[in-house]
Amino acid sequence: CDCALLGSTGRLTKLCFCTARFHGEGYQEGLAEGSHAGMAEGRRHGALHGARMGSEIGCYLGFALTWHCLLQKCTDPKSSKKLRALDSLIAMIQKFPYEDPTYDKLQEDLEKIRGKFKQVCSMLNIQSDFRLGNERSSLTF
Amino acid sequence: REWERERERDRTVRVWGREGEWGTGKPGPDREDMGREERDAHGAGRALSPVSPHRPCPCPVPGSGWACRAVLADGHQRTVRRVAWSPCGQFLASASFDGTTCVWRRHEHGFEVVATLEGHENEVKSVAWAPSGSLLATCSRDKSVWVWEVDEEEQEFECVSVLSAHSQDVKHVVWHPSQELLASASYDDTVRLYREDEDDWVCCATLEGHTSTVWAVAWERSGQRLVSCSDDRTLCVWQRSQGHGAGSEHSWQCVCTLSGYHGRSIYDVAWCHLTGAVATACGDDAVRVFEEVSPVSP
């Protein structure tokens, strides 16, 4: 505070220091409040997106395991190809690091899983964006 | 024989041939598979005339010696964006904004759909056959490139990979002249290359350098180089180089950038496999032909 340079009119000096102090305290309070709110929002955001991702991948896994069961007994070459693709999808999903949000290839691996899912749907002649009848919330991601 | 085909806003595919060929000598023999057809008055508007299947094609001869041999309607619901002949010449693939790719088989009296490839979420921008004829690639505004395996006997097509390497609309796909290596061009300013790796397809290279949409890519006959054209009005020539160490990936370097020649976006490029000349299609109303100049020896 420049007022301090003006000399020793006690009250003026004290006033300047007060201003600076309140400014500083205000800043600290704001920073604390902002950080707190940011953390809370971040956690909510993470939880929401994590849940969506989990839901999507979970859906693919359930789908793949079911079809694997259905085709397991078939020995014709076409079914073998389908089973191989299903195995590949299941392996990709099981390999996915659910515990590590800082995994650097998260989005890339997720795209690969989505791509493999679409390929499997194409092989099984199923629409990859299935909607559940008349329900309002459709199973799209 | 030389055949040409045209894709139009009227959602049909037309097949053209030299007059006098196809055994009849008539400009347009009866076709059973022709449903609706449209009178083609180039640029002057169209009249739809519902037609019985056995009426001859009334298309006027568009230039000396060429006649419209077939109109393939009812294949697509929207603009047909690209067509491609298979290497054997028996199949024709058509990519459409309706999200599907139709494969037509040629037979004595016309063409019939043998497969409709679905899966892309929106407009399919390009389709290309691999030189072996056993693979087909499609790309779309949905940012993905799909690779399909062809079973010629069964005439069945199976999707073997869905590649989402690009971050934007993919404009063009084209196969290497001799290997099963695929190139794609995108709105995300990059060219990507893909190959098969242990039962699945992977993106093995990303060619960065353009500063705007890459519209098309063309391979040199040897397959050691490719050229890309862009919205940024430049052409980039990329050269393959051996990776370091055994079994490592080839890397690609931009060895030449041709800028200052084109006044607008360059929409298409073709590399002649006979002469080595490169031709470009540009938004400034010109076609340009480039030839490689040998470096002056010191």
Task: Explain what the structure shows.
The complex is a heterodimer of chains A (141) and B (298). By secondary structure, chain A is an all-alpha fold. Chain A has three helices and no strands. Chain A has helices at 10-71, 77-95, 106-124. Chain B has 298 residues and is an all-beta fold. Chain B folds into two domains: 65-208, YVTN repeat-like/Quinoprotein amine dehydrogenase (Methylamine Dehydrogenase, Chain H, 7 Propeller), CATH 2.130.10; 221-297, no CATH class. Helices cover 0% and strands 50% of the residues of chain B. Chain B is built from no helices and 24 strands. In chain B, the strands form seven sheets. Chain B has a four-stranded antiparallel sheet, with no helix packed on it. Chain A binds chain B through residues 81, 84, 88, 111-112, 114-116, 118-119, 121-123, 128-129, and chain B through 118-119, 121, 144, 158-164, 199-200. Chain B: Residues 1-52 are annotated as: Disordered. Chain B: Pfam families: WD40.
